[in-house]
Each structure stands twice: as C-alpha cells, then as structure tokens.
Amino acid sequence: MAYDWDRLSVPPSLRWFEQKWSRRSDPYCLSGVWRFHELLPFVPVEACVTVGEGQTLLQAADAVAKYAGLSAGRLFLQYEGMNPSGSFKDNGMSAAFSHARFVGASRAACASTGNTSASLALYCSVTKLMRAVIFVGSGKIAYGKLSQALDYGALTVQITGDFDDAMARVKEVSKQLGIYLVNSVNPFRLEGQKTIMFRVLESLRWEVPDWIVVPGGNLGNSSAFGKAFMELKQLGLIDRIPRLAIVNAAGANTLNRLVGTSGLRWNGGRTDPHLVKKFYEEMDAEGRRAATIASAIEINRPVNLEKCLRALDVCDGVVREATDQEILDAKAQVGAGGIGCEPASAASVAGTKRLVDEGVIGRDQRVVCILTGHQLKDPTATVAYHTTDQQLFNDVLGKRGVRRAAFANRAVVVPNDLGEIVKAIELYS
Ligand code: F0G
C-alpha cells in the first residue's frame, strides 16, 4: 500500500506528535496506534476503532544485555505484551478492524497460532461490530491464547493440521463466504504494526537505534517495520534507517534457509519465484512440517515473504535462527528481568546473542528487541522449563531437543512442617 504523500498533510517532524500526549482524554490520542494516524491515513481518524492498544513500554534491560554480550545501557526491550490482548497483534488488528468496519464487514476471520485470533476475538467482543471466525490447528495453540478466543466468544474452528493448513483453508473459506480476512496478508494490518517502530523512536526521544531485532513467523512485523522506516526516510522524518535482524525458530526456518542458503533477495522487486517454488516443493517432498516450542512462529509458509525481502533490503537486514534451547534460555533471562514473554518473543534475544557472538552486532551498538507476546500466553512452556518434574520436562521440552534448563528457578519441595519450611527459607533466601 502506498500513499500519495504530496496530497496529505505530513507532520513537519516526529516531535510534532508529542502534542498528542497532552490530549490523552481523546481515545485517538491515547491509542499508541492512532496517535500516529497522520502516518497511516487510510481511513478518516473518526472512523477508526480503538480499544486502547499500543500503551506499551520500551525498557532498558542491562541484565539481558549482559547475557547477550552487549554493554550496559545498549539493549532495550519493546514490551508489546502490554497490549489489551497481550500481544503486538492489537496494533495491526485495530487498523484492519477499522478498515473492515469502513467497508461494512459483518464477519471477520483469521487463521492463527493463537495471538491473532485472541486479538480479533477481543476487538469483536468489545465493540460488537463483527462476528469473529477463527481457524486454529488442533493441539497447535498455547492454552493462554485458546482460552482468550473461547472466553471472548469467537467462533473457533479447530482443524486437523497446523498453521500452514489453517491459513490455506481460511483463505478459501473467506473468499467463498465473503468474510473479511484479517491475517497479515491484509495490508491494513501492516499499517497498524508500523506504529510499533514509531513508539520505539518516541521512547528513544526520536533517535534511531542501530538494530531492531524481531522474531519471524508470518513475517508481518518485519515487513511492517521495513515499510515504516522506508516511509519515514522518504518523508525526511528520520535521517538514517536502523538495521533489521529477523530471527526464525530453527524448526520453522523457511526465511533463514531461503535467504541464508538459497540466496533469495528482493532484487528491486524481481524476486526469483523459481527459488521459492523449488524450496516449497522440496519441503513437501520431504514432508517437512514446522516444529518448535515457540508455537507462535511455528510457520513454514510465511505469507509476507516478499514484503519481508523488501524490508531486509531497505534495512540492510540479516536473518538468523535460534534453537528451542536458545529460545528458552533467553526467555528465562527476560523473565528474570521481570518482563516475561512467551517463547517466540525470546527468539529476538536469542538471535541478538548469536549476532553479538558473531560480531555482526557490536557490543556498544544500541539494540531494540521486540517482545511480541506476554509471558502468560504460554504457561506450559515456562512451567516445564522451571519444573522439578523430569517427566513434565521431557514431555514438553525434551522431545523438542531441549536438554537443560540452565536458568531454571526451581520450586523448593518441603514437607508441610513449620520447622522444615523455616529451614528451607533460611537456606535458600
Ligand atoms: N511473536 C508472537 C508472539 C506471535 O504471535 C507471532 C505471530 C510472531 C511473533 C510472528 O510475527 O508473523 O509478524 O512474523 N503470530 C501469528 C498468529 C502468526 O497467528 O498469532 P510475524
């Protein structure tokens, strides 16, 4: 989606947006998405839907910086778990939902690894403007997320298969039944997700960091971030573009393989379609399915692949992957800092550590990791990591190749006896 900026009134500087801070009683100024409406003006602001999304936080995290090999004061966590549905998806959903209402939709659908569906269900239930129809793979969605969709009253269609199967089906079904599709193939979703970058800049007092590091699943975020920086530069609102690092889970690494091994590039919009086709044909022939503890990014056919290649081009980006072990260790480090996240989010920290180890990210560079989802989204993964129950560890994590929980905070098991309890507390505190 491209705007004719010459016909729109573009703010003279990013600092201009600060005037909205004093107008917080206006819901469009309070919203972390719509206070940047001038940079995503696809419907009039008064037609936009808000449930208070985007009240998020950029937090300096020195202990996590140390873990990743960065100097103190150089690592920041952009905590998108603070959104109303607990993930970054609300940024994009408020935008897609606004467009859906604008065109008079009565039903909206998505396929989801859990967070998109939780977000859609929330917007539908709060506003009562549309009915949510969500497709999930059976057994493929973390309980925190499933519980949201059920609680908010979405029509929940559980199909046999994984996200890639559900995505293919929801496209067919929404076409056949004329249902508005809110997956990130929807360009308005990406418009909303651009604002995550606007808020990062806002928190850094409009200074551009050196790196943005983001987990890669369907590649909507990375595509949106690339577009955000491309437009800001084009409008003269920033003078340089940060580098982008996209981190796949090793068990769902289509982007990393295509870019890292097959050499796929944006190439001025002339991406090699044969390379992609061949890759998917081989994947199907080998029967390879996505498999990772980071269920949010357990995706092998990312719908935004091409747009993401453009983002990599615009941001001089790199792609890496992180194993489930690396992801869970990084997640424990993030959690120990008090801002918990779900496994997929921690891929950003695990990827940062790898890139610092490789010398691609310098120790003193300023790095922003996007924590895409709240810690409570997937309690099973967290409890299994910290547990003293070897069986639980094996059932949830061992089968995925996770061997140890180096940063586990184990519960202390004590008999129900005052003396023993006092002794244990004295010993361990
Ligand atoms: N992190 C979390 C917590 C997510 O839920 C997702 C995607 C991603 C990262 C990946 O972002 O797709 O923009 O590359 N979740 C989708 C869903 C697929 O259905 O909730 P992406």
Q: Would you mind describing this structure in some detail?
A:
The protein is of the alpha/beta class. It has a domain at 57-85 and 187-379: Rossmann fold (3-Layer(aba) Sandwich). The protein has helices at 27-30, 62-68, 89-102, 115-127, 143-151, 163-177, 187-203, 220-234, 254-261, 273-286, 305-314, 324-336, 343-357, 379-386, 390-396, 418-428; strands at residues 57-60, 75-79, 107-112, 131-137, 155-159, 180-181, 211-215, 243-249, 318-322, 367-371. The strands form 2 sheets. It has a 6-stranded mixed beta sheet with strand order 1-2-10-7-8-9, with helices on both faces. Helix 4 runs parallel beside helix 5 (143-151) and helix 12 packs across helix 13 (343-357). The longest helix is centred in the middle third of the chain and has 17 residues, at 187-203. The protein is globular and about 75 Å long. The structure holds ligand F0G. Residues 87, 89, 112-116, 184, 215-221, 296-297, 342, 344-345, 372-373 line the site of ligand F0G.
